[in-house]
What we know:
By secondary structure, the chain is an all-alpha fold.
Amino acid sequence: MTNSNSVAEHTNTAQHSKAGTIKAKPDAAHSLRDLFVDELKDIYWAENLLTKAIPKMISNTSNPEMVKGFEKHLAETQNHVKRLEDVFSSLGEKAEAKKCEAMAGITKEAEEIMSETEMGDVRDAGILSAARKVEHYEIATYSTLIAFANKLGENTAAKLLQDNLNEEQQTDNKLYAMCQAM
Ligand SMILES: [Fe+2]
Ligand SMILES: [Fe+2]
């Protein structure tokens, strides 16, 4: 009985993983370097989007400390775009953007939060929550890309990505402090 059950479970698991396997596209990444470059294109698109999304957050924020913090991070974000262009050129690659569905979703959600709250403390709290999700996506991306760059021996790229990561982490810490002070 026990045996037949465990066989059944095993079979189910095998069928499940087979059903979930995704067929690669013809232009699929074949190496860690290909994947690294693809993910750079994703964060390049995301950072470009943020140069337009952060000003919307600023216009919808009533808290002067938040406005100051977002203005600082907007300037940093514009520089993140430039650093990523330097990363592409350090790799001998053309700077290209590929739509980041995750950042498109996080910023869309931020706009929903703004439309569902009155201007003031509650909208500010919603904006902080969305902004932290943005930073965490960036932190996860940059820390992973740095690990890949190190593995690939791309030291210049790793250093530039680390500079972006440091600013994302500092921003997230400030956002978290502002959440706690709400
Ligand atoms: Fe950034
Ligand atoms: Fe950021």
